[in-house]
Amino acid sequence: MTSSTSLSLRFSPPPHTLLPSKPRRSLIVTAAQTAPPAVEADRLEPRVELRDGFFILKEKFRKGINPQEKVKIESEPMKLFMENGIEELAKKSMEEIDSQKLTKDDIDVRLKWLGLFHRRKHQYGKFMMRLKLPNGVTTSAQTRYLASVIRKYGEDGCADVTTRQNWQIRGVVLPDVPEILKGLASVGLTSLQSGMDNVRNSVGNPLAGIDPDEIVDTRPYNNLLSQFITANSRGNPDFSNLPRKWNVCVVGSHDLYEHPHINDLAYMPANKDGRFGFNLLVGGFFSAKRCEEAIPLNAWVPADDVVPLCKAVLEAFRDLGNRGNRQKIRMMYLIDELGIEGFRAEVEKRMPSGKLERESPGDLVNKKWVRRDYFGVHPQKQEGLSYIGLHVPVGRLQADDMDELARLADTYGSGELRLTVEQNIIIPNVDTSKTQALLQEPFLKNRFSPEPSILMKGLVACTGSQFCGQAIIETKINALKVTEEVERLVAVPKPVRMHWTGCPNTCGQVQVADIGFMGCLTRGENGKPVEGADVYVGGRIGSDSHIGEIYKKGVPITDLVPLVAEILVKEFGAVPRVREENED
């Protein structure tokens, strides 16, 4: 186990984060300081205990637990990796695996601790593999390796850029997994602890270290967080038995590319008494039953305590979170139960010093900042270098696409690529003298444009029913088709972010989109069930973040184009193209 005394690390403050002469007023509304709910002392007893190196739910707290908790109790998922159980499992046939509940649960549930998701419904025997990619930074060597993995799976093999700045690869079969895990390690990648009740990929500024206007370089913090959470890719059972999944980000941009308000823990840069550190937001999440923006913890930590604070929050959630109905056990439910001050007290007592400073007024994020577009060519803070943002249509790539991206990163840049939460890719460190040559590359002339159309640049879509068993509709193909048809009907004066999600789990984050589409079944003209979407309008990201509201429910996919065109005209200043042509 990791000792708390080894977690504090020294960071030098960013050179331009001097304490403002007048503290900026945060536009995030702090909850009124009310007395915390009355909580019985025994409610604060930890519900888990350490046994044989792993945290397990105590017998006295097992009444009414959900099926996934029972699976964890029956067999520790991390043993598949830490005790090499995957080697034996990979030798079994699918028929043999399905004949026993233990091994069937291994492939359907426990392998998610290794980042492997069995596609039982649509691709029996095939798996999606989710990587860890702190801050979305990857290399050409890593990208080529992932391309080599998916290429062997033919039409089933592809990769997606996710809304957590990460890679997911598809088509993987179980017998190949041990070698794939070794291959990932050889290029500095891991898929460990990336699914189920674990900490998901740590998100940061995709322009970290190269942005002339950044507040702080988020890469060191996210690297440390990821290394801590996975024990340097060896597996960290201290935090592999959380009640539910848990998201974290470190903010380094005024643009809030990191989407802090939808994370369980967000580090917001702020100075205090001449020291650089972070104010903290907690509890943001999306689910099928509830969506909540993160709220202030009324706490600040110096930069050196980023990891100890993360540890304390995770321990509070692990120890005290409920393990019943999985729709009601994200961390915000624990905050609701204890009250924000009660939750804060539990975090504070788990800090190495037993103390947690109050929030600082010295917030460094400029609330009036206009979010920048990262597509195309932009100068870096390093003289003579530029970065180029490329559009990846709905985040989907094939093996050849990944190889070509790796080649471009090596030929024109430093062999590095950056992934964004909008499912796009940035090539950094390009010699400015080479940017025109890069722009002339055929790869950038087709699908992966540095100048996508105004509606395509804000288009996001989850996996959809092609590969995901929970999706009600196909998202990626429908998203592209509807957007292309809408663009033929109306001209839009400014970018409009449109997000698609295939089911109420809202992996596509439709509630923060300008226009969101949540998959559903509805009735067609003949009264028979057809694929449709509930349409949301009004979501926002940034310092004035806001969750969108239902505009119209149960719209058949075939009826979306005129409805979206109507919304764009009414709400976003679009002009019908027929009228535009007549005026010309």
Automatic annotation (TrEMBL):
<dbReference type="GO" id="GO:0046872">
    <property type="term" value="F:metal ion binding"/>
</dbReference>
<feature type="domain" description="Nitrite/Sulfite reductase ferredoxin-like">
    <location>
        <begin position="378"/>
        <end position="441"/>
    </location>
</feature>
<feature type="domain" description="Nitrite/sulphite reductase 4Fe-4S">
    <location>
        <begin position="459"/>
        <end position="568"/>
    </location>
</feature>
<dbReference type="GO" id="GO:0051539">
    <property type="term" value="F:4 iron, 4 sulfur cluster binding"/>
</dbReference>
<feature type="region of interest" description="Disordered">
    <location>
        <begin position="1"/>
        <end position="24"/>
    </location>
</feature>
<comment type="pathway">
    <text>Nitrogen metabolism; nitrate reduction (assimilation).</text>
</comment>
<dbReference type="Pfam" id="PF03460">
    <property type="entry name" value="NIR_SIR_ferr"/>
</dbReference>
<dbReference type="InterPro" id="IPR006066">
    <property type="entry name" value="NO2/SO3_Rdtase_FeS/sirohaem_BS"/>
</dbReference>
<dbReference type="GO" id="GO:0048307">
    <property type="term" value="F:ferredoxin-nitrite reductase activity"/>
</dbReference>
<keyword id="KW-0560">Oxidoreductase</keyword>
<keyword id="KW-0349">Heme</keyword>
<dbReference type="InterPro" id="IPR005117">
    <property type="entry name" value="NiRdtase/SiRdtase_haem-b_fer"/>
</dbReference>
<keyword id="KW-0534">Nitrate assimilation</keyword>
<keyword id="KW-0408">Iron</keyword>
<dbReference type="InterPro" id="IPR051329">
    <property type="entry name" value="NIR_SIR_4Fe-4S"/>
</dbReference>
<dbReference type="InterPro" id="IPR006067">
    <property type="entry name" value="NO2/SO3_Rdtase_4Fe4S_dom"/>
</dbReference>
<dbReference type="GO" id="GO:0020037">
    <property type="term" value="F:heme binding"/>
</dbReference>
<feature type="domain" description="Nitrite/sulphite reductase 4Fe-4S">
    <location>
        <begin position="196"/>
        <end position="352"/>
    </location>
</feature>
<dbReference type="Pfam" id="PF01077">
    <property type="entry name" value="NIR_SIR"/>
</dbReference>
<keyword id="KW-0004">4Fe-4S</keyword>
<dbReference type="InterPro" id="IPR045854">
    <property type="entry name" value="NO2/SO3_Rdtase_4Fe4S_sf"/>
</dbReference>
<dbReference type="GO" id="GO:0042128">
    <property type="term" value="P:nitrate assimilation"/>
</dbReference>
<keyword id="KW-0411">Iron-sulfur</keyword>
<dbReference type="InterPro" id="IPR036136">
    <property type="entry name" value="Nit/Sulf_reduc_fer-like_dom_sf"/>
</dbReference>
<protein>
    <recommendedName>
        <fullName>Ferredoxin--nitrite reductase, chloroplastic</fullName>
        <ecNumber>1.7.7.1</ecNumber>
    </recommendedName>
</protein>
<feature type="domain" description="Nitrite/Sulfite reductase ferredoxin-like">
    <location>
        <begin position="121"/>
        <end position="186"/>
    </location>
</feature>
<comment type="similarity">
    <text>Belongs to the nitrite and sulfite reductase 4Fe-4S domain family.</text>
</comment>
<keyword id="KW-0479">Metal-binding</keyword>
